[in-house]
């Protein structure tokens, strides 16, 4: 990487930060909505956990990580819109014609969403503790060990969809579908032990399953960093696979359409 590469990436990051500060509404909504839904669903989560022999459960043990994971995957849509916006504004061609190389263009578009994803997770977990009495029996460091690769996985899922989709309508459909399927199969909507029989063999095939498994290990079982190395490692593998898809299919000269 040349001497100018960090400066070019930093310039792209500063542009994304300015746009985020100018319109923070999507970030605020994705952070507030899981907490609002948690307020309604906590009794259901409490009943489900107590039926699974967690006798002192408050419901926050399932609801907070579940809603955090579910709404984190909706970041895929927002990230995709940001990439397609460059084409709609006709600024992508100018970026491509500049000195920035394809790697720098991709890296510059990843860093801000990654930071946003980590902050979103941190705020939801902190607010879950303050508002809904979430008790973490294990290590908070272990939650970070799971949360960071999860955030990376979400960001790379967004980049992979940008690489594969030609129109913003395609990206919106696939991103929302993935978010809902991942929430259902991954145990974000119900404890993993309560998944339907048909879903249990499929669940390990989605990253949200490993995120919820890691979070549950820490929150309910009191696990530390060593206990979540497997879920964190699998999430890293998902992120690597999505990165490979992005590198294989992303072409800077491909024209993206912000309409159907």
Automatic annotation (TrEMBL):
Keywords: Antibiotic resistance, Cell membrane, Membrane, Transmembrane, Transmembrane helix, Transport. GO terms for molecular function: ABC-type transporter activity. GO terms for cellular component: ATP-binding cassette (ABC) transporter complex. It is a multi-pass membrane protein. The chain crosses the membrane at residues 27-45, 65-84, 105-134, 140-165, 177-199, 228-250. Its main location: membrane. Residues 25-253 form the ABC transmembrane type-2 domain. PROSITE patterns: ABC_TM2. GO terms for biological process: response to antibiotic. It is found in: Cell membrane; Membrane. Belongs to the ABC-2 integral membrane protein family. This is Transport permease protein. It comes from Streptomyces subrutilus.
């Amino acid at each position: 990487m040349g001497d100018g590469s960090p400066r070019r990436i930093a310039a792209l990051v500063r542009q994304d930060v300015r746009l985020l500060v100018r319109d923070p509404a999507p970030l605020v909504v994705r952070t507030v909505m899981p907490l609002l839904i948690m307020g309604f669903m906590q009794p259901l989560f409490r009943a489900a956990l107590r039926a699974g022999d967690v006798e002192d459960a408050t419901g926050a043990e399932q609801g907070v990580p579940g809603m955090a994971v579910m709404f984190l995957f909706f970041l895929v849509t927002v990230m995709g819109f940001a990439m397609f916006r460059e084409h709609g504004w006709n600024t992508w061609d100018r970026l491509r014609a500049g000195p920035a190389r394809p790697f720098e263009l991709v890296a510059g578009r990843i860093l801000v969403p990654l930071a946003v994803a980590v902050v979103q997770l941190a705020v939801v977990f902190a607010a879950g503790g303050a508002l809904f009495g979430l008790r973490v029996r294990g290590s908070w460091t272990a939650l970070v060990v799971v949360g960071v690769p999860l955030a990376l996985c979400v960001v790379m899922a967004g980049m992979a969809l940008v690489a594969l989709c030609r129109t913003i309508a395609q990206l919106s459909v696939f991103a929302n579908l993935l978010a809902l399927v991942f929430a259902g199969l991954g145990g974000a909507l119900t404890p993993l032990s309560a998944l339907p029989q048909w879903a249990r063999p499929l669940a390990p095939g989605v990253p949200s399953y490993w995120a919820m498994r890691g979070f549950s290990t820490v929150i309910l079982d009191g696990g530390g960093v060593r206990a979540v190395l497997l879920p964190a490692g699998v999430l890293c593998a998902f992120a690597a696979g999505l990165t490979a898809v992005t590198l294989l299919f992303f072409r800077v000269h491909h024209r993206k359409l912000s309409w159907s």
